[in-house]
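Quick bug: Cytochrome P450 130 output formatted oddly.
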Amino acid sequence: MLITEVVIYDPFAPEFQADPYPVYRHLRDEEPVHHHQSDPPFWVLSRFADIWDAVRDTATFSSAQGLTFYPDEIGALGLAPTIVMLDPPRHTELRRLISHGFTPRRIAALEELLRAFVRDRLADMACRAADGETVDLHRDLSSPLPTFALAHLLGVPAADRARFDPWVAALTTLQDDGFDAKALTAGSAAEAVAEMFGYFGDLITARRADPGDDLVSALAAVEHLTDWDVLGFCFVMVAGGNDTTGNLISHGVMLLDAHHDQRERLAAEPSLIPNALLEFLRLEGSVQSLGRTTTRPVVLHGVEIPEGTKVMMLYGSGNRDEREFGPSADRLDITRRIPRHLGFATGPHFCIGSHLAKLQARVAFEELLRAYPHIGVDLSRAERIASPFTRGWRSLPATGL
Ligand code: HEM
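Here's what came back:
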């Protein structure tokens, strides 16, 4: 790659999105506090330690103005802020209340259901492959699994699933664009989101009157959680828990296909899967960057970031920082010790769904590698998401079935 291409950080450029890692390295080494003079302008942190400290310091780096570099993201949504856009102390309180309903036990109870779903999907994929059809790892497995898990968790009745899937797809598109105000006011995606809110609003009312054993009923029963709190949480789960999880699975298969020795080892030693998942997330994070807004001027590496400006945290860069992960930071090592990473962020906003994501991905890899130890992907026919914030796939044809 030419050096002139390497130094330009442009989160919208297709070349950057295809391979952001040389640019990340340049930023870390040469310009760890980067002032991006675009419209809108923003600042960028790329080193692991800087991001780690900033994200944990919510008094200085606030989430209350939204998580992208778009200035009017919360207003554009026309919503009250959800958990992910609140600062302590309100965030602390809401997260505590939500944790009463969103418990590890409730998540763990999904395992067998998810396993049955994956087996069913794999059997279907194998049949279609045997008939000579192209099977798509992302569309046929990685992406449907989290949608199924969330619909089940939220207690969306089976009869309504056909409505749920398009809402998820619309919301995912908006999420990839970072809830850009223009996209929101223009498209049918906004209608889908409004429809989803209406649906979940009604579901909450119904569950309050007649509780089931689903998450919505459990949250509705928590004292001090308002309808909006429950609705907002459902919204963040659907927006933040779908594509992220699907892309973890798809990226994992892609990484293993580039390292057949490690794929073989993982198939032989499934107990390594939980650690391998963290390594996949570290190398190819579903969430590449999210922002905060400074509440005071901050001086870092001799550069002053003014008060009231957006600062993007390049999680995907921090996760490959040699200063944290050593000289092999860019290489896959499913046995690597990973005491801390930024794949699920850190601090008060650390992903509350990380257990659910890891459960789904673990089950998917256990079943995939058992049934198809040579599973791979055809990158020449793959299609990536075009997003400045997330990394992943629209389509990823499978091989080795
Ligand atoms: C591999 C999959 C996933 C990845 C990579 C991921 C990543 C993240 C990240 C980076 C954050 C922090 C946001 C910030 O820095 O402001 C976050 C927060 C969050 N995630 Fe996830 N996530 C995943 C799966 C899920 C799932 C399955 C759910 C469903 C419950 C979920 C729900 C949430 C919620 C509600 C928050 C906000 C927590 C808070 O603000 O306290 N995520 N996630």
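Actually, after a second look the formatting is fine. The CA atoms of residues 255 and 280 lie 7 Å apart. Closing.
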